[in-house]
Amino acid sequence: MSRFDGKSAVVTGAASGMGRAIALALAAEGASVVVADISADGGAETVAMIDAQDGRARFLRTDVSSSDDVQALVDLAVSAHGGLDLGVNAAAIENETSPIADCEEAVFDRMIAVNLRSVFLCMKYEARAMRSQGRGGSIVNIASTNSFRPQPNQAAYTASKHGVLGLTRAGAVDHAADAIRVNAVCPGAIETPMLLGAIEARGRDKDEVARRLSLFGRFGTTQEIAQAVLWLCSDESSFTTGHALAVDGGYLAR
Asked: Would you say residue 254 lies in a domain?
């Protein structure tokens, strides 16, 4: 048997990058996955990839900063797949190029809405569904090494990712009695469209960034993040909650 046979999962930000890799990995291990993203084309591609590997998935276009959209996402998982066992909250943006003094309020507000408010909303409705079922569950939030150490010109992103870590720990405390575990994965420099776009926007050299942000001198892969998420979702981590797992090529060890 696969680790997640009979389990129901939602994955946000699953139209590309880490979210897509996580959705594919969960489906490959037997989970029925609701793929959520603002991008309908990317979400449909993810579902098609899961279908091609004989997995089970469906897509729901979701604005993760909208309470109505997030509630509808969780409701779909419950109605279509018989409940909710796993919630992986991976949706995020990163588009800053200026220091705090020059950061536009609209940029800050949007970053907090997509990166932090969304995690609160997802946790709220995921935990509510899991609690009502009485069988527990696992929630994994995608935080960042910025949750611990900021990079230059990323004040709003850093604030949002510090907040994700706070919500993770608070959720673990609040819902341990419901047998709901809440953990975070903190990726370092992972080769995703978002990271490559940020590097280009800043006019940086890709190889130099990889050497600076990893002891291995390379970017991590989305599959390496997915494997960390699968461990935290599985019974193999049954005594782990409120934890922030850095998958960062040793960046935070410097």
From this structure: no
CATH number of residue 38's parent domain: 3.40.50.720
Question: Under a CB-based contact definition with an 8 Å cutoff, are residues 56 and 27 in contact?
Answer: yes
pTM above 0.85, yes or no: yes
Residue 193 in tokens: 């469209």
Q: Are 118 and 91 in contact (CB under 8 A)?
A: yes
State the Cα–Cα distance between residues 203 and 173, nearest whole angstrom.
42
Concerning whether 157 is annotated as a catalytic residue, the answer is yes
* Residue 251 resides in a domain: no
Alpha carbon separation from 106 to 96, 102, 156 (Å, rounded): 11, 12, 10
- As a whole number of angstroms, the distance between CA 97 and CA 200 comes to 11
Q: Is residue 77 part of a domain?
A: yes
Task: List the one residue out of 241, 8, 213, 199 whose CA is nearest residue 97.
Answer: 199
Tokens read off for 139 = 């929630």
Alpha-carbon span 140 to 151, nearest angstrom:
23
Q: Which entry of 59, 120, 125, 157 is annotated as an active-site residue? A: 157
DSSP H helices, 53-115, are: 67-81, 105-112
Q: Which domain holds residue 15?
A: 8-245
Query: How much is the average pLDDT of 9-18?
Result: 98
DSSP 134: T
144-177 burial code (b ≥16 CB/10 A, e <16): bbbbbebbebbbbbbbbbbbbbebbbebbeebee
The DSSP secondary-structure symbol of 116 reads I
Q: How many domains would you assign to the chain?
A: 1
Residue 96: pLDDT over 60: yes
Q: Is the pLDDT of residue 90 over 90?
A: yes
